[in-house]
Amino acid sequence: MPLPVLSDKDKLLSVKRVLSKHTAPAAPELIRTHDNGDIECLACGHTCLVKPGRDGVCRVRFNDNGTLRVPFGYVAGINCDPIEKKPFYHLLSGSDCMTFGMLGCDYHCGYCQNWVTSQMLRDADASANATLVTPEQIIAAAIQHKAPVIASSYNEPLITAEWSAAIFKVARQNGLRCAFISNGNATPQALDFIRPFLDGYKIDLKSFDDKHYRQLGGVLDHVLSTIRMVKERGLWLEIVTLLVPGFNDNRDELRRMTDFIASVDPFIPWHVTAFHPDYKMTDGYRRTTSADLLKAVEIARSAGLKYIYPGNLPGQVGDYENTRCHHCGALLVSRHGFLVQQTRMNADGLCPDCKRPVPGIWGVPSGHRDGMIRRIT
Fold first, then answer.
1. pLDDT for 108-145, tens place per residue?
2. How many helices and strands in the chain, by DSSP H and E?
3. Any idea what the Cα angle at residue 219 is, between residues 256 and 124, rounded to 5°?
4. Residues 296 and 252: beta-carbon distance below 8 Å
5. Three-state secondary structure call for residue 232
6. Domain boundaries, the chain
7. pLDDT tens figures, 93-106
8. Residue among 92, 199, 78, 79 nearest 148 (CA)
9. Contact predicate 78/99, CB 8 Å
10. Residue 21's pLDDT band (boundaries 50, 70, 90)?
């Protein structure tokens, strides 16, 4: 007898039933409870009011009879990546980063390159395997691969902050740095919860048009507030904009975006990266060219940004893949794509030529440093 063909709805329900077994109660800092059993979730900027038997926008945080359950105890992907891939260019540049992710997201970006994990609770075509693991096993893998940084990525880490915190606690005990690779849809409560364990925060600033943000499932003001809050909390911050021709590459929009970044701190590294058609944005959108990226660089330079990195087109953007001292112009780090060819920076964070500080978290590179990605599971 042939097996019945599941509808898309049944497939998604089946995934949710499996994942619901790998959860833990939400951190008290990330919820507000109501007498009627409703729970307000504070993990991301949506601040969902989750009724019993329902879940939030992310689909992975749900109300189980008055207890908010959240993802815990598994990964949907774990790789040892060059930290330049995150991308972080001023956080232990040239080192490896043990990167893990779970399932689910509070956005639904049509061009998501990690959609098989981030959209698995929304899209029946998305399919990824989950592996049960402990924080100690993840940190042991990082130590084995000599990766000095642990990062939560691949899906939105804010919605799985409790699991990240459990891993980062063990990482801290072993002297490792910790980072979030996030869409920036945070709340003050979420940032305060994760701050004791965090060193770096990468935020995707996807557009400077609220209409575009709402198409992706977000709100522009939430992200701008997060950028300010991350800086206020003393975390090392880098910002990334995926430049999508016809979506967010308008000159005026880029001017307003880079003016905003400069108003917060002109020394925040801004990565403007090349788009390729993916997921639901394969028709009607062209690839980003090096000329597109260099136009954005020109706008950012005129806005006063000091560290601008066009990415995803190795060897096509001239000297901009490299890091130069904003004081004297000395070459500090030379790169080709994810590969760091040479670094002159030491843990003191000083330019070796002019002896003045260069913003970032610096140190001797650690790990394989060949620009390749190694899958752990």
1. 888 877 777 777 777 777 667 789 999 999 999 999 99
2. 9, 20
3. 125
4. no
5. helix
6. 8-71, 74-375
7. 999 999 999 998 99
8. 92
9. yes
10. confident
- Distance, in Å, from the CA atom of 71 to the CA atom of 244, rounded to the nearest integer, reads 32
* Paired residues of 240 in beta bridges: 204, 271
**Tell me, what's the pLDDT at 2?**
41
Q: Which range (41-45, 128-132, 139-143, 237-241) has the least confidence?
A: 128-132
**What is the average pLDDT across 210-215?**
95
List of long-range contacts for 227-232, beta carbons under 8 Å, 24+ apart: 227/184, 227/203, 227/261, 227/264, 228/264, 229/186, 229/188, 229/191, 230/186, 230/191, 230/201, 230/203, 231/264, 231/265, 231/268
CATH fold for domain 74-375: TIM Barrel (3.20.20)
Enter the tokens of residue 125.
Answer: 């075509």
Closest CA to 317 of 341, 335, 299: 335
Q: Are 24 and 69 in contact (CB under 8 A)?
A: yes
For 292, the token pair is 């597109």
pLDDT of 232 over the 70 cut:
yes
Q: Scanning the structure block, which residue is given the tokens 């949506």?
A: 46
